[in-house]
UniProtKB/TrEMBL annotation:
GO terms for cellular component: axonemal central apparatus. The keyword Chloroplast does not apply. InterPro entries: WD-F-box_domain-protein, WD40/YVTN_repeat-like_dom_sf, WD40_PAC1, WD40_repeat_CS, WD40_repeat_dom_sf, WD40_rpt. It comes from Penelope pileata. Pfam families: WD40. CDD domains: WD40. This is SPG16 protein. One of its GO terms (biological process) is axoneme assembly. Keywords: Repeat, WD repeat. WD repeats lie at residues 25-66, 67-108, 109-150.
Length: 164
């Protein structure tokens, strides 16, 4: 199964390799920039130009939770491996850790000087990795929302970063 997010404001779930559309989700009011499966595969998180992050229940096929709080477009989203937290990266130069159980923002991570373009949890840890248009890569502690280390060295915007 693959999931795509599009400028048409929809996400679609596809069966592989035949390419049949299994499910379509609508509710965002602007383009989708990111989507990520819950570790159990039962939910999906999406990020959008409408400044929101949405959680979708795949058995119901609908949005069950919307996180609002970013001031500008949200570029990326990621699930923590425990499935209780979501991270988001925004054009507003912040990242957020969202607590799915309490349905609130746990931390707003500030430190980048420009758009935060990608975000990812290190599997089975509390470490978050962000990349930014400010040409830096940062490691964060998701338990405190504090920056642990910032890496410098690129001459242009960082569009994506990932762990091995």
């Amino acid at each position: 199964i693959a999931v795509t997010g599009s400028d048409d404001r929809l996400w679609k779930m596809w069966s592989l390799p035949d390419g049949d559309i299994i499910m379509t989700g609508e509710g965002h009011t602007d383009w989708l920039s990111g989507c990520c499966f819950h570790p159990s595969g039962t939910r999906l998180v999406t990020s959008s130009g409408d400044t929101s992050v949405r959680i979708w229940d795949l058995s119901e096929g609908g949005c069950v939770l919307t996180f609002d709080g970013h001031a500008q477009a949200v570029w990326d989203c990621s699930w923590h491996s425990c499935g209780d937290f979501v991270a988001s990266a925004s054009m507003d130069s912040t990242s957020k850790i969202w607590d799915v159980n309490s349905e609130r923002c746990r931390y707003t991570m500030r430190g980048h000087k420009d758009s935060v373009n990608s975000i990812e949890f290190l599997p089975f840890s509390n470490t978050v990795l962000t990349s930014s248009a400010d040409k830096t890569l940062s490691l964060w502690d998701a338990r405190t929302g504090l920056c642990v280390y910032t890496f410098y060295g690129h001459l242009h915007s960082l569009n994506h970063a990932t762990f091995s």
